[in-house]
Amino acid sequence: MARPHGRQLSVTQQAVCLQRRFPDERPPAVKAGALIWTVTLQPTPMSVHYQVAIQYRHRQRPKVRVVAPALESRQGESLPHVYPGDELCLYYKDEFTGTEDFIADTIVPWTSEWLYFYECWVTSGVWLGAEAPHGPGAAKR
Predict the structure, then answer these.
(1) Residues 32, 58: contact at Cβ < 8 Å?
(2) Do residues 45 and 60 lie in contact, with contact meaning Cβ atoms separated by under 8 Å?
(3) Does 3 map to a domain?
(4) pLDDT digits (tens, 9 = 90+) for 6-53
(5) Is 67 helix (H, G, I), strand (E, B) or coil?
(6) Distance from the CA of 75 to the CA of which of 32, 97, 118, 139 falls in 20 to 30 A?
(7) Is residue 95 situated within a structural domain?
(8) How far apart, in whole angstroms, are the C-alpha atoms of residue 7 and residue 10?
(9) How many separate domains does the chain show?
(10) What is the pLDDT, as a whole number, of residue 96?
(11) Measured between alpha carbons, how far is 63 from 54 in angstroms, rounded to an integer?
């Protein structure tokens, strides 16, 4: 789906793109200016199937959570790269602009990549992906 020229992407345009890109999934719901969608992702052929919920409001950061199976933490460690409520941290602050970038082209593949890194972390204890500190005023590493 081509990006509209001179216009910002709406929540409805995001939903249409997701439905076209993922026709086997239930279509996203758009209610009260918010997109709500659940997708099944499998990062590798050996991975389990994850049910992921994505919520998006125009001009806000998409909220992405794994619905099932429940994410496990390593003994004595909390989940890496998550916000409060186990919302996934997928990108540096300026890497996604919902009014310019399609969720289907960015958030969905980044979520699959996050799940791959999560699986590696569960088995090895090492996060293999890029890291963005989560504290206020934190810089990229």
Answers:
(1) no
(2) no
(3) no
(4) 567 899 999 999 999 999 999 999 999 999 999 999 999 999 999 999
(5) strand
(6) 139
(7) yes
(8) 9
(9) 1
(10) 82
(11) 6
